[in-house]
Amino acid sequence: MKTFMPALLALAIVAPAQAAKIAMEDQSQVQPSPAKPAAEAWFQPPQEQDLPADVFGQLVQEGRAIFVDTRNQAAEYVGNGMNCTNCHLDQGRKANSAPLWGAYPMYPAYRKKNNRVNSYAERIQGCFQFSMNGKAPAVDSHVINALTAYSYWMASGAPTGKALPGRLYPVVAEPKGGYDLARGEQVYAAQCAVCHGDNGQGQKSGNDYVLPPLWGKDSYNWGAGMHRINTAAGFIKHNMPLGKAGSLSDEDAWHVAAFMNSHERPQDPRLIDGSVEKTRDKYHADDGVNLYGKMVNGVMLGQGIK
């Protein structure tokens, strides 16, 4: 039985020479990958030493700098405290964390989200609109070109149009009794708050987030894929807590994902006529398991926060 209780839960475009100097370290590199099935090996993307010392290699480095430090390297297009690598761990390398090597070869592709075939550049634009709560860079912008080059390089040797193992957040079955926000709050306090804060606010060093906010004005908005409880549960189960991936039960991954997504966050930019109800009917009613437009503790979620 689903219970609803209050409160929870992973450019200014600089000159190329400056972007290349950005340190590529980030917190997502710390955790080990989950154990691989005996008969299955993840695709291995190229290493930095494999980059050619030419204009293409420079563009790839710039793309990687944007990927790990999006909030600073693409500040014009980011409206919150997120970076690409918050959802695509280990600089977009990690299996079961929607790695770039699993995404790039699958485009162009139809997306139900906008009911049309999208190019890879359009897919990246969507990340800026929803996960970054910002605005889409132009398809021919330096930001899109650099991120596309980085993705293309990461997928070097990957088959085109083949769904590689580890390319998504794995599906985790919903608990038979449904998710429980009270249990999710307990899991969050025990396993997540040490990194993401008691109120999901994340952790900062100066003006930059070193651990991302999970709800509130600086987190992803109601249109981001992570707002789906089923999507967040898959990410959490196979990637969190940092350094202890796979340690939560399937049920607790669902409970804490629901708790995380039972909090307000920025509005879905597709809001129709100022109506949460209309927006839910069109975009959220059949979009996995989510709480947009639902009543939680007497309050309708989805009204947004600035």
Automatic annotation (TrEMBL):
Its EC number is 1.8.2.2. Keywords: Heme, Iron, Metal-binding, Oxidoreductase, Periplasm, Repeat, Signal. It holds the Pfam family SoxA-TsdA_cyt-c. Residues 58-184, 179-264 form the Cytochrome c domain. GO terms for molecular function: electron transfer activity; heme binding; metal ion binding; thiosulfate dehydrogenase activity. It catalyses: 2 thiosulfate + 2 Fe(III)-[cytochrome c] = tetrathionate + 2 Fe(II)-[cytochrome c] + 2 H(+). One of its GO terms (cellular component) is periplasmic space. It comes from the Bacteria. It is found in: Periplasm. Residues 1-19 form the signal peptide. Monomer. This is Thiosulfate dehydrogenase.
